[in-house]
Amino acid sequence: MVVLTTLVVWSGASAEEWKPVSGTLMTPWAKDVTQDNVLPDYPRPQLVRPQWVNLNGLWDYAVTADAAEPQDHAGKILVPFPIESALSGVGRRLEPYQVLRYRRAFPRPDLQPGERLLLHFGAIDWHAVITLNERPVGEHRGGYDPFTCDVTAALTAAGAQELVVSVRDPTDSSDQACGKQSLVPSNSCYYSPVSGIWQTVWLERVPEAYITAVQADTAPALDAVLVTIATQGARPDARWTVRSRDGATLVSEAEGSVASPMRLPVAKPRLWTPQDPHLYGLEVSLTTGDRVSSYCALRTIAVMRDEHGHQRLALNDIPGFQFGMLDQGYWPDGLYTAPTDEALRADIQAMKNMGFNMVRKHIKVESARWYHWCDRLGLMVWQDLPSAKGLRGSASGRAQFAQEGKAIFAALRPFPCIVMWVLFNEGWGQGGYGLPESKALGEWLREHDRSRLVNTASGWTDVGGDHVRDMHFYPIPDMPPTDGIRASVVGEFGGLPLYVPGHTWRPSKTTAKPFTNTAFKDRYQALMPALRVAQGQGLAAAVYTQLTDVENELNALLSYDRVVNKCGEEWLSAQHRPLYAPPAPVTTLAGGSVPWSFTTVAPPGEWTTAAFSDVAWDKSRSPFGANHRGAQTLTPWWTPAMWLRQTFSVPAQAEACQIILRLVRGAKVVVFLNGMPLPVGAVDGIENFPLIGHPALRPGDNVIAAEVIREEGQSRASFDLRVIAY
Fold first, then answer.
1. Burial of 574 from C-beta contacts in 10 A (0-12 / 13-18 / 19+)
2. Choosing a second label site near 460 at 20 to 30 A (CA), which of 75, 91, 176, 431?
3. Cα separations (Å) of 563 from 65, 92, 231, 343, 357?
């Protein structure tokens, strides 16, 4: 059982000294936050000791423009909410030239001979210097990885122990990984900055030799768990034991030296899946006296070819479809920090209820408890590295990015829910880091952590050497090209905007249309056929943008305060259910590998009908125009207009046909079926227009034709037109 020891804040704060900043959008969980009840849950579920002290709560704080120690503190701040947040009680921005200082005290613990006192920080953004009783005890750079200071030597013999944490946070520095934070948040994809302590701070007593990490990996045959530990102060020949349990039932146990991994067989393995997220308990102990509890799961993840020859993502050797949400991890009241543990759990449960089996944690790292809830509730995670979006290629910046990234990998590796690492998003910072270096980092990670997949570049700058080919499409998903070795995934799509009055960050700054539930649902529902077509062509996974609105972004399924679901959980779950069925085979009837007849001279007569002869026209395959959505265009096109046509036959057993109209940079396309114009879109995007049931479609042969016009002043235009049966 976890024991929480209550401490008195050094400054003697009273209940009236803290309240949230007014005028800010709040989530339903904000009301549960008090200065005496601040994220009290055990912060490290993968390495639990029963004795610990939570230092969350009111601290003194001061902001200065230099390194000098302030004479007086400005007031109270509620840790661990960042200073910019409403729940901190401060709500002010930390400038790059400023220093934020925290101060509090705690009673001297009654350490036994040989015991050490550890001070843990879940995360501090960005450069932290820690002193205890005016003695330096630690320094850390990086906003997303946990770190620990051994403060034993700095303890005084008795009385209050004064802890000071000094923080600098440039935020927009070219050498700093900050994700989507910005000192100048935009109306699109950049949000409020986050500075200072933003995860739990806590104390822990440990023996002189103690366990620092427990890693449990699944054996390839899915019949055993391979456990390794890391220690501090223990000799390589020190002995340790590990036991695995299924509830109260002992499954297996082993004993050996610290330097050796342990194999724990599982006679009747119960595998971890989103449908059955089964976890096994672990008990680990050193003969020197340290003892921790942990947990693990039996699961593997791999790229595997299915019966149709498509590369799929296989969980536990079973190919399937991963469908998830993009999650920025922002909260209107706490910014990076969720108000309560229940709020974290509710986000994950909402995704499950909406019919998603995966989440892409976007350019942010969460607290350990968020991943714990994904483990327990059964949600696969694609974990992004926070990007240094302005990285300019400095040696110090590259070194910091690699160091922080590897620390994040090590901290999160014990969580079985994480099935993929995403290193770079849309090239943010990738060019400055270096394309060869980014590929090398992906290859290093692929070798270092064989229990997960690696996605080196989600979106734009593909360098190879990883497990997936990832592209972004808005709003309608497409099938990214692949090399036949990697799986094809859509790392982002959707992003349909919808304004929900009364539940937005700053309503006066949005120009989105008022809430119209029916229209939004119609637009969302229209995205599903594109996913089914892409699945049949080999698409292995897709990520919808996004879980919640964030500040001035309104393109989510939940409002920013998590109060309004724009479509409803049951309706969304019903829309998504077909995506988990085996994908129907897809046949391309027109376009694709079948050449088009085309001309760049305006044709005479009834050129869109079957009676017209196109024998004299040129023949070539699509796409036409400039390079098309990451794929090399097969037929260059630079004239003001072109006309094309093709005859196709509808199979008798075809369940449906889709026209996928792919337009880039404003090309205007008018499509005809057997001479009848179709009401398809005109510019910039992908459209799926159903043909089954259309009056122009007839048994046997049909003619699809199109007139394509380059918009005035448009130098780069392209298009691809196909008829697909599935």
1. exposed
2. 176
3. 40, 26, 44, 12, 22
Q: Please check whether residue 635 is in contact with residue 621, taking contact to mean a CB–CB distance below 8 angstroms.
A: yes
Is the preceding peptide bond at 265 cis, omega within 30 degrees of 0?
no
Contacts of 561 (CB under 8 A, 6+ apart): 25, 26, 27, 28, 332, 503
- Of residues 280 and 7, more confidence is placed in 280
Cα–Cα nearest to 511, from 552, 551, 475, 550: 552
Helix (H, G, I), strand (E, B) or coil at 422: strand
Q: What tens digit of pLDDT does each residue of 19-60 get? A: 999 989 999 999 999 999 999 999 999 999 998 999 999 999
Q: Which residues is 721 bridged to in the sheet?
A: 661
| Through-space distance between the first and last CA atoms of the chain, rounded to whole angstroms | 55
- Report the alpha-carbon distance of residue 366 to residue 412 in Å, rounded: 10
For residues 673 and 602, is the Cβ–Cβ distance under 8 A?
Answer: no
Alpha-carbon distance 372 to 280, whole Å? 13
Nearest to 60 by CA among 21, 110, 101, 3: 101
Arithmetic mean of pLDDT, 668-675: 89
- Phi, psi at residue 560, to the nearest 5°? -60, -35
Mind giving me the DSSP string for 325-366? EEE---BTTTBTS-S-HHHHHHHHHHHHHTT--EEEE-S---
Ordered alpha helix ranges (H), 86-141? none
Q: Are strands 596-599 and 685-690 parallel, antiparallel or unpaired?
A: unpaired
